[in-house]
């Protein structure tokens, strides 16, 4: 693994990106918002020929660009020198964009904007976040639910009204009339820039209000937004803080459909906003901003992690909303990115891991299920062994679930346990499920997880937003292992586990190499 010293920081460059996955393309994140393009261009040009540099739409204040260098070597130099580089008090983050992902989807098939990091629009002017540039479409469409009796008015005579809206807001709008026949409400999907989505939403609300007046319909027509359950926890925020703030700032009343309504086929929750058209429109902006942010974070995390879980197919796990307009789900094709991962070596099974996950003692019954049905199904679904350890004492608040299996099995089993605890209301409707997981590491490797002066552990926490603790003064167990404690919501916890396993794999590889070297020299060297 190549290590680079940057501003006193040791940064590992090579080991986490398998050779075959290196490419000429890099994504640079966390660029200062007001940086002039000239400054960025001259910085990038130091490492080689920049064939292409395009801005990616994000909801963060900082800018993100995708850069293509003339060859892989130049890209490698750039990533070594620029990752962690300080620019106007911002620390740049640089990662490879694997070739498969870049080549996978020609962008024109995707009205939804960035999918395989496709080519990006118009020429740049001014600074990365200058408003003169036409904003690219958001990856996350706005999904609304409207009463069936207003669908005709929204479409208009021979489709004139809907054509007008799409033209005016430069959007693509799908009205899913065929869906849930006979239902009182129909979903509408709007693909556009965040601003375009908001304008279209406001026009649709105005059309419904006018139609209601014309047809003497007197009930209130709230704004209903559909959002994938994965993002709703973060929208609600801890103890409901984020949602309360949106309600206060926009003077609206917001409710969210209960988890019980979710099914495998319908992972969306309904967010109902009551207020005037003006206030509902403001609330829509805030709600979608939060949801897009969560989506961007998850995609970014997964792009970074793609090569860490060999063969993991995210779409199969249903982590991302299937888009309903026939566009394939995000091409974070982890399966292909992972297929390029150079470990475990071909033909070897990924190693089995054991994780101890702590759940509320009261939840044990829900996890086991009637006559052990739930835990058996879970074990089959995940391909993992799942056992619940006996209680430590009569008053124990937590119980330990012992999960044994390869990375993908861990991902599935832990994900379902998190989900089950949420569904069974062991966590409030407005809080994220946070659990503690323990993994055992050889005592000689604990130092590597902590890093010099705690540096690695701090970087782990910053990258994954999980809390990672290696308690000091532990007495190693009979297998000479010590415990690493990880606490966080499912996503954070998974990333931290993968990162730690990656460090351990590296330690094991180095030991193997040393052994091989030693065994190759049976005679002690004479002085």
From TrEMBL:
Q: What's any one GO cellular component for it?
A: cytoplasm
Which portions of the sequence form the region Disordered?
103-142
Organism expressing this protein natively: Mesitornis unicolor
Q: Which GO terms describe its biological process?
A: mRNA transport; regulation of translation
Compositional bias, Polar residues, is annotated for 127-137
Family, similarity comment: Belongs to the RRM IMP/VICKZ family.
Q: Quote the subcellular location field of this record.
A: Cytoplasm; Nucleus
What domain of life is recorded for the organism? Answer: Eukaryota
Name this protein carries in UniProt: Insulin-like growth factor 2 mRNA-binding protein 3
Record CDD domains: KH-I_IGF2BP1_rpt1, RRM2_IGF2BP3
Any Pfam family the entry gives:
RRM_1
Show the InterPro entries listed in the entry. Answer: KH_dom, KH_dom_type_1, KH_dom_type_1_sf, Nucleotide-bd_a/b_plait_sf, RBD_domain_sf, RRM_dom
Q: Which GO terms describe its molecular function?
A: RNA binding
Q: Where is the RRM domain?
A: 24-99
Give the UniProt keywords, A-Z. Answer: Cytoplasm, mRNA transport, Nucleus, Repeat, RNA-binding, Translation regulation, Transport
């Amino acid at each position: 693994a190549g290590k680079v010293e940057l501003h006193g920081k040791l940064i590992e460059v090579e080991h986490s990106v398998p050779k075959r996955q290196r490419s000429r393309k890099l994504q640079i994140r966390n660029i200062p918002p007001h940086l002039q393009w000239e400054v960025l261009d001259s910085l990038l040009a130091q490492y080689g020929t920049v064939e292409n540099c395009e801005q990616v739409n994000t909801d963060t204040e900082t800018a993100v660009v995708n850069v293509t260098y003339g060859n892989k070597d130049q890209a490698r130099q750039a990533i070594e020198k620029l990752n962690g580089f300080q620019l106007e008090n911002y620390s740049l983050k640089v990662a490879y964009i694997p070739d498969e992902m870049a080549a996978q989807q020609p962008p024109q098939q995707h009205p939804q904007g960035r999918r395989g990091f496709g080519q990006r629009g118009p020429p740049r002017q001014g600074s990365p976040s200058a408003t003169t540039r036409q904003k690219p479409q958001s990856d996350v469409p706005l999904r609304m639910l409207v009463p069936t009796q207003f669908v005709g008015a929204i479409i208009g005579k021979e489709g004139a009204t809907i054509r007008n809206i799409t033209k005016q807001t430069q959007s693509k709008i799908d009205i899913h009339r065929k869906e849930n026949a006979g239902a009182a409400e129909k979903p509408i999907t709007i693909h556009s820039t965040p601003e375009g989505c908001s304008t279209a939403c406001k026009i649709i609300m105005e059309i419904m209000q006018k139609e209601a007046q014309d047809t003497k319909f007197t009930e209130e027509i709230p704004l209903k937004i559909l959002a994938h359950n994965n993002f709703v926890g973060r929208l609600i925020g801890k103890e409901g803080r984020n949602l309360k703030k949106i309600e206060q700032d926009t003077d609206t009343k917001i409710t969210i459909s209960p988890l019980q309504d979710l099914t495998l086929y319908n992972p969306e929750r309904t967010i109902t906003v009551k207020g005037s058209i003006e206030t509902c429109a403001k609330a829509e902006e805030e709600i979608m901003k939060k949801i897009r942010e969560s989506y961007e974070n998850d995609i970014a995390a997964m792009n970074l992690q793609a090569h860490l879980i060999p063969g993991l197919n995210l779409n199969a796990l249903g982590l991302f909303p299937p888009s309903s307009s026939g566009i394939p789900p995000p091409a974070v094709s982890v399966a292909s990115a992972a297929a390029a991962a150079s470990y475990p070596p071909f033909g070897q099974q990924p190693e089995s891991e054991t994780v101890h996950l702590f759940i509320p003692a009261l939840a044990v019954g829900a996890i086991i299920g009637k006559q052990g049905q739930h835990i058996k199904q879970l074990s089959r679904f995940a391909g993992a062994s799942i056992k619940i350890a006996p209680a430590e004492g009569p008053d124990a608040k937590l119980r330990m679930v012992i999960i044994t299996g390869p990375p993908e099995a861990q991902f599935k089993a832990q994900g379902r346990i998190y989900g089950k605890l949420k569904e069974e209301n062991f966590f409030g409707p407005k809080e994220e499920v946070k659990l503690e997981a323990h993994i055992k590491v050889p005592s000689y490797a604990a130092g590597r997880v902590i890093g010099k002066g705690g540096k690695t552990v701090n970087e782990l926490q910053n990258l994954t937003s999980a809390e990672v603790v290696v308690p000091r003064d532990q007495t190693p167990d009979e297998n000479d292992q010590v415990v690493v404690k990880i606490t966080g919501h499912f996503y954070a916890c998974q990333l931290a586990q993968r990162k730690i396993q990656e460090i351990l794999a590296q330690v094991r590889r180095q030991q193997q190499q040393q052994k091989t070297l030693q065994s190759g020299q049976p005679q002690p060297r004479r002085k």
